[in-house]
Amino acid sequence: xxxxxxxxxxxxxxxxxxxxxxxxxxxxxxxxxxxxxxxxxxxxxxxxxxxxxxxxxxxxxxxxxxxxxxxxxxxxxxxxxxxxxxxxxxxxxxxxxxxxxxxxxxxxxxxxxxxxxxxxxxxxxxxxxxxxxxxxxxxxxxxxxxxxxxxxxxxxxxxxxxxxxxxxxxxxxxxxxxxxxxxxxxxxxxxxxxxxxxxxxxxxxxxxxxxxxxxxxxxxxxxxxxxxxxxxxxxxxxxxxxxxxxxxxxxxxxxxxxxxxxxx
Length: 264
Fold this sequence. Notes:
EC number: 3.1.2.14
Number of domains: 1
CATH topology: Rossmann fold
Family: Belongs to the thioesterase family.
GO molecular function: fatty acyl-[ACP] hydrolase activity
Radius of gyration: 18 Å
GO biological process, one term: medium-chain fatty acid biosynthetic process
């Protein structure tokens, strides 16, 4: 009983799933962007058929985990997600969707599952992110987070877009957003992935989405990370193109088709 309770509390803390579908054939687990919470991606559940259950990962330091200390590095995040979700992921097929910072977390979790447990998502959906083996990530790695002023971080958040300006009028929310974003960026800087010549980590298909007005991401390098198919889609909008209702519909329909075509 005690073990079940600990597992349940871990799930409740980490995973947000407003549209529970215990009989679903596949779980889609979503990983939000830097500074982001679970509200948008967890709501995707309402767009999917009964064969797919959608949940979103909630990292420490935000929403109901506000009082918890932020994760110090990518390994800590990967270990928490894996330990809480492992049993579920062993039970039925799963796919991952990550946007921006969330793409790197989803990749790191998938890599850990593959290396340690021989488990692999049936499909990896990544959005608004360089491939983790790309040199294009190096400038992000070298942003001096420790010395960056709040104003610099705020400018970066505003360049990315996706944060309504009225939210930034509220000083408390603004302060919390800057803090969360800074800590997420710090985590991203602890993540490194070197692809060796002979090692292709995955065999699942990978689909990369990007906003047409967003800065160019090095997507081609995702090709080298799987022996499966890699496909690329550009949708109208900037870095947060996925918050546009029409894009949301395209994404959820496309993801559904990919999962259903995986022959579950």
